[in-house]
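User: Hey, my collaborator sent me this sequence without any context and asked if I could get a structure. I don't really work with proteins. Can you help?
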Amino acid sequence: MIARLRTSWVAVMLIVIASVFVPTNAVSAHAGLISSEPKASSWLAVSPTEIVLVFDEQVGVVFSRVTILDQEGNEIINAKLIRDQSDPRIVRASINTLPNGTFVVVWRVASADSHPVQGSFAFSIGASSSDVTAVMNAGVSDRHGLNNLFNVIRFAMFASVLTLLGGAALVAFGSRSAPSIRTRMSLWSAWAVALFASVQALFAYGPHASGVKIYNLTDLSLLGDTMTTLFGQATLARVLLLLLFSCMLITIDRRSQRWWRMSAVAIAVAIAGSMSAVGHPSNQSPVGLSVALDMVHQLAVSMWVGGLFLITIDRKYWLRSTQSMLWFSRIAGYSVAILVVTGIGQTILLMDQFADLFTIEFGQKLSVKVLLVVALVALGGLSRKTLHAAGPAKLHQSVLVESLVALIIVGITALIVALPPRAQASLVPFETTLKQSGLIATVTVTPARVGTTEIHVSVASLDGTFLQTQSITGRVGLPERSLPSGPISFEKTGLNHYTAIVSFAFAGDWDLDILVKPTDTTTVLFSTDVLIKE
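Assistant: No problem. I've predicted the 3D structure and written it out in structure-token form, which is a compact way to encode the shape of the chain:
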């Protein structure tokens, strides 16, 4: 046994080391919008002819759409996005001429790892703008589509595949007696759920990626498009592999033979690969190392948690065999060690900084998952002591508790895989309204982050009388870095509306002064702090 384990470790290390040298491109793990035309919260003198979105990685366009809503939330344009020929990170859609007013752009694309991402922003045409915050929030929430269904599909997929692979390994290597009827039926049930979840995912991915509100299982209109995506191809491969694995279940009584074990291991590794191909690892540099770590991680989880699930389902059979439980306890220990190494490696590759564990949703859920895994390891340690002291018959309650904790961990994992593991670049603008000397100034900085931004200033009189400003000037500085205020050059882009292009070199609270000249002899000063983020 020790010699075989050493051989397995050597094989794993060779795969990991070799994968480092696989040529890769530097990519992130979820597409993030880094700029757009029109810019968020910008004012335009005339209607744009197209919507342009620039992401930090290549995105899929098979199911990508952009929808334009008016200030009442009515859909006026729904267009398909196409990829720019010169840059795969850029997508665009031609649109019809829009009238003056404020509009909301709702976009939805697929990341390189197949997960749909979406967002919204607003822009105005003409001199005035309207508050469309509610329309923006409703526009995105109404298009969440099948997120909840896909979370259920992923949960069913993960739980069933773990039980199938880990349970088959337990039967093949951990037991010398013929498996019970319940164990056989449990393996077949896990196989059936995994197969059904995979087929369901094939049908649901198109509507999910498109953001439709209603899903009809009999609607095959998007299936052809799904099969052109990496997700569709990897999921179809998993379906075929699961059908092939059914041969292993049919011939499970020959599990002691070399050909059976080699075939079962090969198919199990391929199934793990089909799942890694459509997750974060497939889009994380270096891809080879990331995918290898994820596959090893999945297989180690299967050996531990999958075996635990099968034991819990058929406790009467498994807890009467001391030899089987000792084998499982030993393998679970090795699996935990592998999980620690691969888990740390994956976290380092996926996340930018340790602080993200507490500041972004992915990190927060991952932190909860880690705490539950630690609790599960502690429970497993107590069960191991009980096993050696009193035998497996005393483990009926403890394995049930362990399985419940493990099931919660699987559920959290199903949620985590669809979340971006890094903080996304913020396109949220800074907006404020200032009142001074009978005037009201609306100031917008878009986007409010380091780099080139636009500052828009719109001025009106508080009493509603006609106003025609003579000019607007400004200055901006960053006291916390001892950067003195420098001048800003504004250009008139509409009646009482001015625009300036400013480059913010650092994050922090910048001092912004706007000097409005409503008449030849009068100057009004508006001052505010602008928070610029990374």
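In plain terms: The CA atoms of residues 33 and 55 lie 4 Å apart. You can pass these tokens on to your collaborator as they are.
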